[in-house]
Amino acid sequence: MTILNSKIPAGPLAEKWSKHKAAIKVVSPANKRKLDIIVVGTGLAGGSAAASLAEMGYNVKAFCYQDSGRRAHSIAAQGGINAAKNYQNDNDSVYRLFYDTVKGGDYRAREANVYRLAEVSGDIIDQCVAQGVPFAREYGGTLANRSFGGVLVSRTFYARGQTGQQLLLGCYASMNRMIGQGKIEMHERNELLDLVIVDGKARGIITRNLVTGEIERHGAHAVVIATGGYGNVFFLSTNAMGCNGGAAYQAYKNGAYFANPCYVQIHPTCIPVHGEQQSKLTLMSESLRNDGRVWVPKKKEDAIKLQKGEIHANDIVEEDRDFYLERRYPSYGNLVPRDVASRAAKERCDAGFGVNETGKAVYLDFKYSIERLGRDVIEARYGNLFQMYEKITDADPYNGPMMIYPAIHYTMGGVWVDYNLMTNIPGLYAIGEANFSDHGANRLGASALMQGLADGYFVLPYTIGDYLAGEIQTPRIDLSHPEFEKKEKAVSERMSRLYNVKGTKSVDSFHKHLGHIMWDYVGMARNEEGLKFAITEIQKVREEFYKDVRIPGELNAMNIELEKAGRVADFLELGELIARDALNRNESCGGHYREESTTEEGEAKRDDDNFTYVAAWEYQGEGKDPIVHKEELVFENIKLTQRSYK
User: How confident is the model at residue 161 (pLDDT cuts 50, 70, 90)?
Assistant: First the structure.
């Protein structure tokens, strides 16, 4: 078994990052001009990295499959971004943010990485304010904060329900400035389909131009993957349909380890599924749980009447309402972490207390906060979110509760990286949601934007220099190298193989089939029998896919169905890897809930004696079982305890 070297610096936790920065190599301004870096993805992680690296003097080539870098899925983030500024004077601190994040991730993250994240969090806010991000402010002009799940302080900075969009616009403006100066070479509508490894080092990528269908070669001294997560393996998720995780999966197939793939987050505050023709789910910001109360009827007969449409939520008097999060978790109430809130909602619905026609919904009610604060205050805080809910459901959330239900959202697993954010392949980096590093088994709300910007603005720009200092004498990468030719040919053959199946079933039909298997057997609750069944079924679907998928249009031209087919081909392999990892981890932790590992009170039960490690999977080739390597997690500053939010 390979020993994974995380390269965590020695010394006290609070000094690791500063001492590490002082010890690693740097590249002079004159030498930066000689070095090329590829950044794949233009969301908050990729966009901030591209802008920062270009400002430092490197030559950056940025890639995205969208028609504009500002259409990255980071734009969909609503609720906010965490930072330990203590603006509310409620005893927040770097250590408290560090502790909350490790606890929220169910003690399955590296201490050193999480502390660094907390340490640089305040700088992110200063950076974004300087870029003009319009954070909400108090009457006196100071930046406003609100609470999010899993914490007892207010540390979340926000811009109404558009935080991701506003942060991305600030980041995109910085990128555009560098594009204008010729330091960033922007490639829109270009999708990574393979990596090029030369003499053991990442030296470039093979992409497909999504407008012309042309296969292209691109070289660089280092490659950065910043392409987000893989939640769309489940088909229905809060992700945009284009989100695919394909770049990270190609890194895995080229030898990069894939860590903790079973750590998938279920978000408790989503608009419930409404039909078979639906292609994605809509997230309602976790910030709504600040002022909304979650409940179901106490009486099953009332739930049945609601399911049949015989009564309305407002017909149920308060004493007949079960505010189950407040009942089960009095300390945190409606602001328990996402995994805890999601399982609690599932438990109530499975017990027959769901409130819509399918029985798969609970209420999120603002009646009490409107009575307490007034409609004007609630409208100022959440007006655009309420408007979005009404447009989608045709129900007015000011005059009745919202209906919500858990859905696939974020992925904590991803490409394995060391403390420098480099994978086990020299010169290949992974940042943001594409790596596994900071959230353990469950991400706290408002921490995705924090990690993406921390990696791109304040971590990678320092650590990548340590590697590139040894590449100064390396000339511009030769695109005629046999490895580029070999990989380009492999991509062309893969596309032709898919296109020439000439079957009878659409790409979406296979994706939906996979999604049903994943949600039913690898979703909110998992068990040994179900996971083994899922692995077998996914293999059957994959076999059928290569025999009967139908891709209309042309091979060497714009072809959206061909794009989707390549992504679904990856999903059909990645879905099996997720199930294998979930089967291997016979414990419950965070978003990974094994029914065999449950406390007497029905909560997730960790097994610290056997599973306090990162599971890093190594690809062995098509049709072969992957090998798992273990990075043991050492906790020197936080005591391992079973999580409690009661």
Answer: confident
